[in-house]
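Write out the 3D structure for:
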Amino acid sequence: MICRICGQKTNTIIDLGSVPLANRLKKSAAEPEDRYPLNMEFCNNCGNLQLGYCVNTNVLYDDYLYITPDSPTLDSHYDRLIHFMQRQGYLPANGFLFEFGSNVGRFLQRAKPHVGRILGLDPARTIAERASASGVPTICAYFGADTAPAIAAAHGRADVVV
């Protein structure tokens, strides 16, 4: 395998064989289950750790089920993070906070009273719809070289990207 960072050869350090996707639940026990290689590769040149195989994004996110839990521990973490960013001057009270991979928007919902604007981005359609319905504006798309300029053009440059 080749390192995605520096292009040098990598070494397999963990190989768990072929496994089903964690969030792809079968509708019946008889339904066939797709399996994908799960191994971790290490680059001795730059120290990068990477998956040996990346599942196609459409397969991974089209029927994505994981939802960030509603948790007092997470809420406390979010509050500490928001206040840290504000104390350090990264996130002004009228600032724009953007989160990619925002899931149902729990972090952004927590930050909403402390900033001027929030925006989430998540590739899972049902997850993005749920976030938007809960009052967290969310774009359903993948974050990348093509989407970043379009988001900046439509919404302005964010003060903080999470």
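The radius of gyration is 19 Å.
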